[in-house]
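thoughts on these tokens:
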Amino acid sequence: MTPDDWHITGDLTRFLARAGEFLRSRPALHTVHLTVTEALGGRGLRVYGEGDPVFGVLERGGDVRAAFFRTPPGRLMLTPAGAKEAAGLAAQLALRGDELPGVMAELDTAAGFAREWARLTGADLGLHARQRLYRLGELTPPYPLPPGRPRIAAANDREQLARWYVEFTEAIGESGTSQDPGEWADARIAYGGITLWETPDGVPVSMAGITPKVAGQVRVAPVYTPADLRGRGYAGAVTAEVSRMARAANAREVLLFTDLANPTSNALYQRLGYRPVEDFAGYDFHAGPAPR
């Protein structure tokens, strides 16, 4: 396999013409690619940052084998690929002179790409996070529920959502690659994409979001409770509610990611009925000594 097997473009329409069917063929494993490209098509190519997005497709024998996108300043997001396929992409991007802050992909794919990128560019690697993708089986809401009720966030919640979005991205180490908080809140409010859990006196204490349905799949994201309000069952209650809403909207697959370093959230989501699908890893690339 040569680096030229990968077809790279900045044209979203051209990318989806080649990769769209492939992405939709495995909506769970390709959930991020589906939701991000949907947002780029609907809200503009720079919704995630000021840089121009880059897309790529690997085709062999007329069939799409893998795909990627990158929305600067974020990491390269790569679908599951074999070791040679991932290495070929690293080689082509290195030849282009691309500067990458990191990669996120299925566990082995991410590791293979990262190793080859380090070999070719001299970059130092740092494991950013290991995540597990879950799929909802039989929803089992927590019992008893905490006091209060769910409510879909509205325009007057904008400031609260924007503030919690900033806190959430800081908590997961993604503040440098996040969207504008106000624009993020506006987009979620527009389609009813955030549900709040509020106390009996109407004070919001937790939030959970769902992505728009694409290819029959919906992803629960983000789930956030301020640190001083955790341990009271709010996250479980609001996550169960958005999961129920997704099922009611006839989503064929309801998905979510968790940080494997957080046993509390992993245990919670499994109690709600989520079952493991695949493990993913994110690597950060840092400037290292020049390659020999």
About this structure: The chain has a mean pLDDT of 95. The radius of gyration is 19 Å. The longest strand covers residues 124-136.
